[in-house]
Design goal:
The protein has 581 residues and is α/β, with parallel strands linked by helices. It has 2 domains: 418 residues, no CATH class; 156 residues, no CATH class. The protein is 62% helix and 6% strand. A hairpin with a 2-residue loop joins strand 5 and strand 6. It starts with a helix and ends with a helix.
């Protein structure tokens, strides 16, 4: 016990990191190399273009080059090690290295959450906040993709951590560290530019003197603010330029890509994979389609309560605060100054969360990965709410803490089953290979990253059903394919779900899927393959269907695949009537 008390912080943090590593590093090769996430394919393609030192332009600006270069140089280092070891060491693919770094950054974020939480609450509840992050399904999912979201979250929270250090200790080195971390986050994903807002607020809080009414003091505060802002911007821009040099060397290509991605995000540019966001309400969409799944209902609810409580408390303490950060040590105790700094940190935490939440929530494109950097905040807010509750209702707090821990663990276990089971696409493909006779014809929906069946002696026709509405030649191809196909594979919810919801905009497509599902096309569903989050307890299996969540939540790693077999042959004219040709 003496040993544990002495090294408690290290032991518990090591346990949290180890548990996080298990959930994030487990089965990084799930999918057996399939590019389930389209961005994984694009990132690997960018890495494969590089050749040091002659060709280091990735020709890919949708994401920054930090993760791309990290994957590339790691692979080159491993190749060198392999040659030294006489080829006894098998060099992992860039795809697998990318997933490794996603898991690594996601795991390291646990330590940052603990350190940030310690500013708000005691050690016990700071451990709890970190534990919630360990269990967050949305972060576990991002850690299993070779995409930059995990790295982005790490650098954003590293920047936030140094901001808090700067506010508390007023040491310029912390401000420089903040800017360096922000520069790296910009090099991971340019959208992190929104974090300049909390940085500005942090500098403002340290520059502004509330009690100073004299012109000289006000002028001094303004000069300090401008000076610190310039230092921050210069360091952040220089760091960004070093880690993402082709943003400047090939600015026109970067600007063109930025315009395109920005157009997609705000809905100015219409593409097939953003149709799920048509006629959706900002904030309500995230509250209904993302947070309950990515966080779990209990963590989401308590996180919201914690945020509301923190906002109310921040307003109260700022309203009653009369201490200035420029008040001399003779006039105010160190303890009072510490309290003032803590109050400003409350404000900073709220601003940091809102700077990430508001832009993502109000974009037209509301993908889960856009809002993912906010996920750790809910863990901090939930733990803080429970911490504050202990001062008023200790017994109820223990009960509430037990409930949120239990249900968050159960939801995390259920979601983790997606990775403990085989990739559902591989399961479906193997079933088709063993149950369908050779030379059968399959009609499959295009637009998915993987087309089934993966193997076997089959004929496969892939058609872009997204263009069914406006393209008559596509409709003619569908008619021919329906006539000649033995099976129709609906590989995910992406097409039918969105078009049946928006039948006023896509009446032909909606009517086509109505006819497919009710059997009018002569096809009958014979098998459905899914890998819903599942709990297996005491011999009972409880599934949690989540196909109704934001589509990328499920379609990238556990889509529902429906197999239809032709039971009745129609002629071409009958098929054409369903498509109004």
């Amino acid at each position: 016990m003496q040993f544990f008390k002495r090294y408690e912080i290290y032991i518990l943090l090591i346990l949290l990191v180890a548990f996080s590593g298990i959930l994030r590093f487990y089965k990084l090769d799930w999918g057996e190399g399939l590019y389930s996430h389209p961005d994984e394919y694009h990132i690997v393609s960018a890495v494969n273009q590089l050749s040091y030192p002659s060709q280091m332009h990735p020709h890919f600006f949708s994401y920054g080059t930090v993760t791309i270069y990290l994957i590339y140089f790691t692979q080159e280092l491993l190749k060198s090690a392999s040659s030294v070891l006489s080829s006894q060491f098998i060099v992992p693919s860039s795809f697998l290295i990318g997933r490794f770094y996603s898991a690594l950054f996601s795991t390291l974020t646990i330590l940052l959450i603990y350190k940030i939480s310690r500013v708000l609450m005691n050690k016990r509840f700071s451990y709890l906040a970190a534990f919630f992050v360990v269990l967050t399904p949305g972060l576990i999912q991002q850690a299993h993709f070779a995409t930059p979201e995990s790295a982005l979250i790490f650098f954003l929270f590293l920047s936030l951590f140094f901001m808090m250090k700067f506010i508390r200790y007023n040491i310029i080195l912390y401000l420089v560290s903040t800017s360096i971390a922000l520069g790296f986050s910009l090099g991971v994903k340019i959208s992190s530019i929104v974090f300049l807002f909390p940085l500005t607020v942090a500098i403002l809080l340290k520059s502004y003197s509330r009690n100073s009414s004299r012109l000289k003091s006000t002028f001094r505060s303004i000069l300090k603010f401008i000076g610190l802002i310039l230092i921050s911007l210069i360091v952040a821009v220089v760091t960004f330029a070093l880690v993402a040099q082709y943003v400047f060397l090939d600015y026109q290509a970067f600007k063109s890509n930025l315009d395109y991605e920005g157009g997609l995000a705000i809905g100015k540019i219409s593409v097939f994979y953003t149709r799920q966001f048509i006629d959706t309400a900002p904030v309500l969409f995230q509250f209904e389609k993302i947070f309950p799944y990515a966080l779990g209902p209990s963590l989401f609810i308590f996180g919201v309560l914690g945020f509301i409580h923190l906002v109310i408390k921040a307003i109260k303490i700022l309203y009653h605060s009369s201490v200035s950060p420029h008040t001399s040590s003779r006039e105010v105790s160190n303890e009072t100054m510490k309290q003032f700094n803590n109050k400003t940190i409350y404000v900073l935490l709220i601003v940091a969360f809102l700077s990430l939440f508001i832009p993502s929530a109000f974009l037209f494109a509301k993908w889960t990965r856009f809002i993912a950097p906010t996920f750790p905040f809910f863990s901090i807010f939930a733990a803080y709410f429970l911490y504050e509750l202990t001062n008023k209702m200790k017994v109820f707090t223990y009960l509430a803490t037990a409930i949120i821990i239990l249900f968050t663990m159960l939801w995390a276990m259920a979601f983790f089953s997606v990775y403990t089971n085989p990739d559902i696409r591989i399961t479906a493909s193997k079933w088709l290979e063993s149950h369908v006779k050779p030379d059968s014809n399959f009609l499959v929906e295009g637009g998915n990253t993987v087309d089934l069946p993966l193997h076997g002696n089959f004929q496969r026709t892939s058609i872009d059903f997204y263009a069914l509405e406006e393209n008559s030649s596509i409709r003619e191809k569908v008619v021919d394919a329906l006539y000649s196909s033995d099976y129709f594979l609906v590989q995910s919810r992406r097409i039918f779900y969105n078009h049946q919801r928006l039948r006023n905009l896509y009446p032909k497509t909606a009517r086509f899927y109505d006819a497919l599902f009710n059997g009018q096309l002569g096809f009958e569903q014979i098998e459905e393959f899914h890998s819903y989050p599942k709990l297996s307890l005491f011999g009972f299996n409880i599934e949690f269907p989540d196909e109704g969540a934001e589509e990328t939540w499920s379609v990238f790693d556990h889509p529902v695949i429906r197999t239809f077999e032709k039971k009745k042959q129609l002629n071409r004219e009958e098929y054409a009537r369903f498509l109004e040709i």
